[in-house]
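Section 3.1: Structural characterization of target chains.
Under the original work plan, the team committed to producing a structural model for every single-chain target entering the pipeline before any wet-lab resources were allocated. The record below documents one such target. The sequence was received from the expression subgroup and is listed exactly as submitted; it comprises 196 residues.
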Amino acid sequence: MRTKLNPANFVNGRVRLFDVPEESDQWSQVSPVIPNLVLYQWSELTSKLLTAGDSAYRISGMLLEFENVASPGDTVTAPSFDRSRTISYYQGLGSFPGRDYLRVPLSSAQVETSGAPYTNNSMIFNARSTGTVGMHGETFSDSVNSVIFGASLVAMVDPGDASQDLLFSSLYFDAADQQPKLPTSQIGIEWSVDLQ
């Protein structure tokens, strides 16, 4: 008999956004908790970790989608997506002028316990925006009104080849939670995943 794990029943994630001043580790929360969608590729990451123990498939970074809007305070209309999303979506962003993504490594990852009867079942991943140019060459800066409006949690299977990234989960932020790049700080993301 085969046992199937449905991420809707046994895996859930949530994200909080933070303001992180330059040269600082003082993270200040700027959003409520936001749910994410676990994608089909989560099964590929998990199966390769559980069978071969291949560390290349561990969650190791985030993709932060941004757009350079016309004026400060403008928000972005996010596209719709479903669980079939893959890295090909991000590769296609080069055809949308002003829209791009940052590919950033994790700043930290840790394991906690969400509560009885579970032990060591909650993972917390942290990353922050970094750099001044997106993967398709768009400027990421307060001077061009860059706004981060979406993100994905990923396994960077080959750190030098973004085309091999596998997506664990993705989300878009409501207009009120979209984060403009500020001149003196970066955008921090805390992404928690519970296994139950």
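The radius of gyration is 17 Å.
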